Amino acid sequence: MATLASNISLAKTNSTSRRRGTFRIGSILAYLVLSLAAIITIFPVAWMIVSSLKPGNEIAATPLGLDIHTLSFNNYVALLSEVPIWVGFQNTLIVLLVQGGATMLLCPLAGFAFAKFEFRGKRFFFNFVLSTMMLPAIAMIVPLLLEMGSLNWVDSYQGLIAPGLVNAFAIFLMRQQMAEIPDELLEAAKVDGCTPFGMYWRIVVPLMRPALAALAILTFLGIYNDFVWPVIITQSDNMQTLQVMLSNLATQINNSSPGTTGHDAWGMIMAASTLATVPVLVLFIALQRQFISGMLAGSVKG
């Protein structure tokens, strides 16, 4: 009996050891794959930053080389002195403040109405909002351009901002997140005499902070990286957003400095791209925890 018990115990120990060994090998492989994916993702950004500090001829001669003795901020100095890139930042900031502010104000309110109130035509209007998400953005460009032309809003802030004031995806995202809020909380607030907007501001907004942070990041990225509509609606250099200005940067560099070689232009382009990347990195690093928790909210039900 004792021998049988010891054999069973030994078999269990061996089985446990094999499972632990398999788990460790799996963990090591997972870390290796994730590390490789991180390197592949980070490498282009790191190369861009390093190239922005290198002379143009060195970028062309040894794109992957690095000589710390040649690193300098000459590309940034030349860029800021020869190209009005701050005009692109200014126009993008104006669009972000107005269009992004309208999205953050109106879309959560619409999502709150669709999630927690009953009214005539609710299902029809919500399905209509969802149907607009199925339309490819390219199909709306010509009608929007004709509309902006009839309003004399071409090459203006109104034309840049108006078509994106309300976002169907943002309404859908907020509605799905707010549907998870218990109705009992809102009923208790209603009994205490709270108005609908008071319920939204005092109860819903504090509970929705992670989701609102996620929406803020998605809205920021959507507006900041938008290229197709700004390049169509703007005509003058003074109205170009940052992404449009980056696409024409080589031409602007050659126009402002006719003697600039192609190599030097690439150095300034890398510098401009680095400057354009900084706000995105800062925002995501500052709000990454809220973004992840906001996107996962409601994905697991207890």
TrEMBL record:
Keywords of this entry: Cell membrane, Membrane, Transmembrane, Transmembrane helix, Transport
PANTHER family: ABC TRANSPORTER PERMEASE PROTEIN MG189-RELATED, ABC TRANSPORTER PERMEASE PROTEIN MG189-RELATED-RELATED
Identification of the protein by name: Binding-protein-dependent transport systems inner membrane component
Record's subcellular location: Cell membrane
Organism this protein belongs to: Ktedonobacter racemifer DSM 44963
GO biological process annotation, one example: transmembrane transport
Signal sequence residues: none
Gene3D superfamilies the record matches: MetI-like (1.10.3720.10)
Topology in the lipid bilayer: Multi-pass membrane protein
Family, as annotated: Belongs to the binding-protein-dependent transport system permease family.
TM segment ranges: 28-50, 93-115, 124-145, 157-174, 211-232, 265-287
One GO CC term, this protein: plasma membrane
Domain of life: Bacteria
Residue intervals of the ABC transmembrane type-1 domain: 89-287
CDD domains named among the record's database cross-references: TM_PBP2
Principal subcellular localization: membrane
